[in-house]
Amino acid sequence: MTDRRLAYVATDNVEGGRLAARRLGRLLGGKGKVAIMGFMPGSASTMEREEGFQDEVRKSFPAMRVVALHFGMADRAKAMAATENTLAAHVDLAGLFADNESSSSGAVQALKARGARQVRLVAFDASDQLIADLRAGWIDSLVVQNPFRMGYEATRAVILKLAGQNPPDRVDSGVRLVTASELESPDVRELLFPNIERYLSAGLEPRRR
What we know:
- It is globular, with a radius of gyration of 18 Å.
- Helices cover about 45% and strands about 20% of the residues.
- β4 (about 95-100), α4 and β5 form a beta-alpha-beta unit.
- The chain has a domain at about 10-145: 3-Layer(aba) Sandwich (Rossmann fold).
- By secondary structure, the chain is an alpha/beta fold.
- It has 8 helices and 8 strands.
- The strands form 2 sheets. A 6-stranded mixed sheet has the order 3-2-4-5-6-8, sandwiched between helices.
């Protein structure tokens, strides 16, 4: 990462992985086999999620075992095939962490194809289909980022600099775990479905979080 920057606004990806591990640990009673469906080798953000997940499992749930780490290579079909192979190789797999949108989409399709509702899936990122699968119970929970705040804080950093002020060097834009029961809560709806028109109206400023 370069030091020649105005500010660095990003998700704490390590904490995102830890959130997923803590959720699976609670769901599984701290034991059982789990697997990771990753994005691709060398992707810094998703590698941090994988590292955070594995570190939290080792630290907090020593009776849980990560038996596989595979990569969907940004391809839903490849993620689905890799998940199916993992399910075949580990028939007693209890949990699964998918660390990006395409891997999450492929993983949930594999669970549907096998009718494997007993495997608890914690997915990363949100889309209309992933939210529908969360509602339907195929996904236990979603770890979601806050892209709206990323854009807001990045713009704010530029404005501060132009005004002769020094913006914060680093801003954590936030990460949160969302369950189906929380989907209708106002703060979650604002996170997943921000009212952009409200912020484009003259005289209104986004609410700070």
